[in-house]
């Protein structure tokens, strides 16, 4: 019996050591894996808090960056007031927020855009420290984002006043367009910060019709405004600064538009002199009384 007890004790010890070794190795694997960098984007969102399901936390950087481990969930917040939670990834946008309706997502976007320090959504969304301090005393909750009358919520009021100035809450249509532009920018797997309002493949800054889709960028009159949104034809075939529609010599440069004989054809391209000094309907070159009207000649 004594030998059996010793054998059992030894066997249990081996099992415990074995199990303990596996657990230690698993813990080491999870704690030594490198952190990943993700970006919170609706334009880069700088200055909001984040924490992950693995315990990482901090404040998003100037490019919206945050740290996470694979398989993490990440929650973004403003002084503890939850904005949304999503599966952590290279890029996270408000559209990725779980447990928020479409209304809730859109209102979060309106909230952030209104809070933006310089009110310029195209250069990123920066949350000023004064806003963070104000949020610590705020009386609203994340439930406000789901309100169908968001304009009248405490969260909306906070977004308009917490920067210390008077602001107008960003309109739903503007917010939706901005979010759509962000998603469009990210569709190639990277964020370029180039918005394409009409989704024609040309960023607004390089698009000759930024609000009208024209993937061919056709500009027949060369005035810098694409044909798709150009209401006037400014073609100037001879390059004399006078557009064809009013040029008396369309194919010959004549910026002074001189037309001595008044026949509507500029001197630069008029091969015949139609001057009629006495106005009798007979041009001077064949008039037998150049200075005296005599239409019957």
Automatic annotation (TrEMBL):
Residues 205-285 are annotated as: Disordered. InterPro entries: Thrombospondin_3-like_rpt (IPR003367), Thrombospondin_3_rpt (IPR017897), TSP_type-3_rpt (IPR028974). It holds the Pfam family TSP_3. Keywords: Calcium, Signal. One of its GO terms (biological process) is cell adhesion. GO terms for molecular function: calcium ion binding. Residues 220-239, 260-279 have a biased composition (Acidic residues). PANTHER family: THROMBOSPONDIN. This is Thrombospondin. The keyword Calcium applies.
